[in-house]
Amino acid sequence: MVATPVAESATESAPDSIESLIRRRKPGYSLESAFYTSPDIFQADLDIIFRRHWIYVGVEPDVPEPGDCMVVDIDRASIIIARDDDMGLQAFHNVCRHRGARLVHDEKTTVGNIVCRYHQWTYGLDGSLLFAEHMGPGFDTGCHGLKKVHLRNVAGLIFICLAEDPPADIEDMARALEPYIAPHDIANTKVVQQIDLIEEGNWKLTMENNRECYHCSVNHPELTVPLFAYGFGYSPDEVDDVGREQIARYESLVCDLENRCEAQGMAAREVDHLDDCVTGYRAQRLPIDNHGESQTMNTQVACKKLLGTIADAKLGGLSVWTQPNSWHHFMSDHIVTFSVLPISPEKTLLRTKWLVHKDAVEGIDYDLRNLISVWVATNNQDGELVGYAQAGARSPAYEPGPYSVHTEMLVEKFTNWYIGRMAAHLNQR
């Protein structure tokens, strides 16, 4: 007779609390499957990570002129980012203070004032209520302006925070990153392409995939033309003579690039606070192979007009990472920025933008296909890999696997940051 494992089944089906999953997380290993599949953990991610931390959402040239507006959705929150009449940036909840109707319906638009289509309540670009008909003589417009959202412009990168009291260390990040980013002069660029890619995986898998290049040599033939795979780690015991020569060449190029940049007054050396700050970040200028100019298939500049104060095309690529949801590549001729926004436990939006000098003319100064080809291919390849990882996380056979200590250091830092921030907020309850 075969016994029915009633007690065992009940034990297996009992869900673990988020707190217990966090407590037993094993450093150096991937997260348990619930972190990638559980609706409860997904909701906790939205509440603790995306509603309480600084989230990268766009760039200054998304709203270049007074009256320009951009809408960003983070879960149920819809946020208007507007350029006001004094050229300042403002952020508001996209909700009318009358009966709650959505105000701006397009992702990007230009307005004189923000007018609700429902009852025509009218708001200035500073969020103040300017007009509300039929509300009576005692109605105080000053009490019914749009609800503001915290915004910080870091050298042209726009971050917002939905919390009432946002993390103050955004100022530390800004002071550290501005010397790296400022020479590229984001304010005087323009967005020439935006591609939104829906990846079939949890947002953390999208971020983990970005934070390593262990998979690059096999999966990214386009990206590894300009980038050095050895620049993202390697196992010294598994490198042959040819590999050692390549590593020595790469390390020499790093040294030369740092000296070249610093001679021109540009920050280049690695700064890393990915997992020891509330607002985590990292920056480093890395060499580009062959011609050494840009992340293109021929490694030469894709745009003839160089950015900002840059006069030397051979300045490699500045890589910037911020927790929890962005990475960026700055070259002498163009910029590529990436933001990650969760949609559901197993679906994520990856938004990529390409920027060039604001005066560059397509077909004369740059060819759009050449400009975007490396990262279009790479994003599509990565999206497929994230889907594979998500499918594996659903399996009952899944268990956390060990990170490579040589190539997945930044994945571990992302996971450490995530677990640390979740634990910090849960412990406050």
TrEMBL record:
One of the entry's Gene Ontology molecular-function terms is: oxidoreductase activity
Asked whether the keyword Iron-sulfur is assigned, the reply is yes
**One matching Pfam family:** Ring_hydroxyl_A
Name the keywords, alphabetized. Answer: 2Fe-2S, Iron, Iron-sulfur, Metal-binding, Oxidoreductase
Cofactor(s) recorded in Swiss-Prot or TrEMBL = Fe cation
Q: Which residues form the Rieske domain?
A: 56-160
Q: Per its UniProt entry, which superkingdom is the organism in?
A: Bacteria
Q: Which PROSITE patterns match?
A: RIESKE
InterPro entries from the UniProt entry: Rieske_2Fe-2S, Rieske_2Fe-2S_sf, Ring_hydroxy_dOase_asu_C_dom, Rng_hydr_dOase-A
Check the record and name the SUPFAM superfamilies matching this protein. Answer: Bet v1-like, ISP domain
Cross-referenced PANTHER family:
CHOLINE MONOOXYGENASE, CHLOROPLASTIC
What is the name of this protein?
(Fe-S)-binding protein
Report the source organism: Skermanella aerolata
